[in-house]
């Protein structure tokens, strides 16, 4: 007697009950699995890009908006700030690095960011082809930008005003592609990087280099930042790294109280964002657990009714030599088959959900969330599903030991 084949045949006999039990398990496990995948990959994306950035300064407004727009490039900037106020921070002994950022245009939805080579060094981006931007209107493309736009070294293009690809094109000034970065897994992949002067030039704030400085000189970026007329220049924000923790204690308060700028701390704002998201995630997780428990009850009711309806069949099998233990394991096997089916379907469902989410994130924010590997937590989920299937099947299966063979056969 092949228990597995008999169990499969019994489940097929009760198609609707079996389908309902497996579907509930699939939904519950799929939801939990998807939440685990999203939580892990979003957390990795956020932590990876925030690394080495202790503070962001920008125009006054929402601190979270400032962090999202300056570090992750997924929100609108809060405004512009004077470059001379940013450069004044360089004199503070607690500050190690300042990376100014200037935004305002895009190319086919990919943001064009004016900055200095320090930004490239910070994210450890390496040139795959060509060279890093070195003079105004030169750009270096992130790997995703190059792949999606099909721009090549030497190509020129006009940017669109604003962060929307439908913005007015700056046809009078065109950028020239000088290099393409290797994939970094960071925000650099989805950016078009150029120097600050390019952004000012596009927006009619052109700045010419000093007579004794060549545009191709690598020191040009630094020297331009020190030139006069800084009061007329503006940037969108600046990424700052401290020399020691004392900077974190004193400088944000000084900036917020004594300047026209706002200081935002990425670690605090991202933790706040995740705590806000956490409420929704915990609610969905609790809902998924409730669904899984309902699935367990469904398995229990299905097998309980099945045992009642198959009493004569069971009694007949016992009279023909089958042992009660063997029939008990046969019923347990039905619960396990439903649990495994629900788990596998749930894992597949979560991957489909992740793929759909990744497509939406890629389209709206150019972020990829494509790690479909099994997580260690999902093995615990498998153990939980098997335990649930065993418990739900064990209770009705115990009835096989109370079955009176002669009375059951006589009644039928």
Supply database-style keywords.
412 residues, alpha+beta, eleven-stranded mixed beta sheet, two-stranded antiparallel sheet, 14 helices, 55% helix, ABC3_permease_C, FtsX-like permease family protein, cell membrane
Walkthrough of the structure:
Strands 1, 3, 4, 5, 6, 7, 8, 9, 10, 12 and 13 form an 11-stranded mixed β-sheet that branches. This protein has a two-stranded antiparallel ribbon with strand order 2-11. The protein has 412 residues and is of the alpha+beta class. The radius of gyration is 31 Å and the shape is elongated. The protein has helices spanning 3-13, 15-50, 63-72, 83-88, 117-122, 143-149, 196-202, 220-226, 245-258, 266-309, 311-319, 324-365, 376-397, 405-411, and strands at residues 55-59, 81-82, 95-107, 110-115, 127-130, 138-141, 156-157, 160-161, 175-181, 191-195, 234-235, 237-242, 261-264. The longest helix is centred in the last third of the chain and has 44 residues, at 266-309.
Task: Report the mean per-residue pLDDT as an integer.
Answer: 86
Instruction: Pick out the low-confidence regions.
Output: 205-216, 223-228
The oligomeric state is: single chain
> Total helix count?
14
DSSP strand count: 13
Domain MacB-like periplasmic core: 18-199
Subcellular location: Cell membrane
InterPro entries: ABC3_permease_C (IPR003838), MacB_PCD (IPR025857), Macrolide_Exporter_MacB (IPR050250)
Domain ABC3 transporter permease C-terminal: 287-405
